[in-house]
UniProtKB/TrEMBL annotation:
GO molecular function: calcium ion binding; mannosyl-oligosaccharide 1,2-alpha-mannosidase activity
Transmembrane segments annotated in the record for this chain: 16-35
Lineage: Eukaryota, Fungi, Dikarya, Basidiomycota, Agaricomycotina
Disulfide bonds: 362-420
Organism: Pycnoporus cinnabarinus (Cinnabar-red polypore)
Listed cofactors: Ca(2+)
Protein name as it appears in the record: alpha-1,2-Mannosidase
Pfam families found in the cross-reference section: Glyco_hydro_47
One Gene Ontology biological process: carbohydrate metabolic process
Family: Belongs to the glycosyl hydrolase 47 family.
GO annotations of cellular component type: endoplasmic reticulum; membrane
Entry keyword set: Calcium, Disulfide bond, Glycosidase, Hydrolase, Membrane, Metal-binding, Transmembrane, Transmembrane helix
Pathway: Protein modification; protein glycosylation
Amino acid sequence: MSAQLQTYLSRRSRSVRYIAAACTAIFVVSTLYYLELPHYAGEFRFDEHLPQWPAPTPSQYPQDETSSHVWDTRAAQVKQAFRHAYQGYLEHANGFDELRPLSNVGVNNFNGWNVTMYDSLDTMLLMGLYDEFEAALPVVAQGNFTRLRSTPDTNPWSRSGYAPFFETVIRYLGGLLSAYALSGEKLLLDRASELATLLEPAFNPATGWELTYGWRAAVTPSQSGMLAEIASCQLEWTYAAHATVNKTHYDRVSDLLETLANAMEERKGGMFPTGWHLNTGKPVSESRSVGAAADSAHEYLLKQYLLTGKQQDIESLEMYMLTTNEVLTRLLYLTPNRELLYVTDTSGSKFAPAHRLEHLACFFPGLLALGAHAVDLNAAFAGIDRTKLNAEARRQYDLLSQYDVRALHMAAAEGLATSCWLMYADQPSGLGAEVVDMEHTVRDGSSKDAKGILWIDAVEGWRNKGRTGPLPGTDEKKPIPYTLSAKERAPKAPWDYVVKRHDYFLRPETIESIYIMWKTTGNPVWRERGWAIFEAIEREAKTPSGYASLKTVTQSPAPQSDDQPSYFLAETLKYLYLLFSNEDPVPLDKWVFNTEAHPLPVFTWSDYEKHKLGIPS
């Protein structure tokens, strides 16, 4: 590892007992966070003409042929969609967490504290909906965080009386902190600090949740927990510590970062597994994923480094580099005919690939593009001490050392984002399925490896043949209308995938990546793709009172489900609005989005904050 990381770790305890206790403390019972356009020339090419870090030059792409007035009009349509969804919530579900947009009733899925309202506060501010924002403030002021409320038709954790730590942090705490940062309303910071304080017993291995506040104990030694729930609260607690100069808040995030750094040192590189035992603090398997159970943990490694102005948290950046090294060399595959680039998960000690693409994993191309845009990845890669890595991590390092790492990340981002877009554009509904199974063997009986085509192997072949043409998986691709067989089973040819789960839950991940691809490349094709997705949402998901999830994307009109998640207003519509807006109220070099799309401002610790909070200089 780097000398900086070694120095950092030398100040910290590395005992296994500490790691186990801290991991146990952080976990609480929770459910995972779920669950034909023109194509411009100028596809990604990996050669000497690529722009250098930190960002591509817009001149390598065609000019946007859509006028700024049209984009303003499109942004206004997204704003109206938000108003429609939020007003439906207020009319039919005010006082509840979420709206059932078909039956027009409210449901408490997340503690019964009006999660849709809290999740929407910063979206209102970014859209200039100040009347709606100000009307929400008295509700926030009167909210009771010590009382959990459920309804008969609710999520399993709500029926059991548990407050889900992960969802409470990213939706409520993140929403309050972001709205405070955008508005300066001290009420929001006060309520955020109060909520953080109430949540902090979850970090205490001796007490778990405080029963006096109506919480039930949420840590049981026999259970397993997920990586995303261990490592997806750093941003919120870091910004809370900065905004309040509260040492307890800072100590909580410091302990978590220490635990992660110690665990990575013990493992000597690579990705963290998805499942961990709550009692021992050890992995329960060697499964890997960037989708469900792991997604936001990888995201927060990079974003923690960015949030503190790239002046602190160097160990988080190094863990991000070691994680992406493994993704690039072990989790990326190509389909054999259409050459769709996809990221999958692996299971078992042999790392058997599942060859499926989850919608939840479609945030990952945006994360890769953000890292390539914001960080000198080649310098970060060079700073890794190869001699401190295990054999597999060294293999990954040596393989990638032959390439411009920043350019390789951007190539992967381009190919993955294109595949995620095609999962929408191919469908009759124009919207993306929850899970697709990717084809990984050639149908003509040729000698292709039945285990699938690793992207890095294809890239090596391209390099050995003189680096001519675009990288595998990054060439121009067009939608192919997707059809069903007579037995309602989708054939693989010519799509190279089968829709496994047909649902669309109004998810934001693909749109998030499209937004970041637009901001980091300047290629107008991403805006046009986003507009097609919004048109499909309007056509397929709109109801008289809001927007509904869909039961199947392979039909149009698509049958609807009685569900309007709060993240539809917090994330999906926010990213669409920012994609179409000609203004840039939250530029990527000045704001960092938490995993619920709540932007937090980039900052550096002042000398006084370092003194009061005990932050090493």
